[in-house]
Amino acid sequence: MILKNNKYILVGILSFSISSLLIAYYIEYALGHKPCNLCLIERIPYFISFILTSFVLLLNRLEKIISIIILLSFIFGTIVSFYHFGIEQGFFNESLVCNLGNGEALDKEQLLKQLEQSTVTSCKDVTFRFLGFSLATINMIISIILSGIMIKVIKNYD
Fold this sequence. Notes:
Strand content: under 5%
Order of helices and strands: HHHHHEEH
CATH topology: Bromodomain-like
Oligomer: single chain
């Protein structure tokens, strides 16, 4: 019975991960809000959750180990979201992560041309709010909740 409940919870996590990614891409492409680098990094736990939860549901193997990996990915998401929230609120300074480009070595002319064309979104600029909250704030709260749910799932396997 408990393992059956875990399957339902994992289906919910899978559905939520898919929905979160679809919403993020809708905001980016349909509404035209360009994400910063931290926003892109904050999507990683949802991709990991999508892939690993699908694996568990299809193959019914390694459920506890994969659930632990999913938990760790949501904890990572919580930390990154908290850091992003702190940058938005002015608690932390922007780091190198916020300014990462494509990693190419450029000469002076290429660098000037890229700077003229650049529309890099700063990690401290909130370009989209929902109910008055930035997406980093919402993601931090959701990541904490999903981490708690995954702890419950892992405890159910014992």
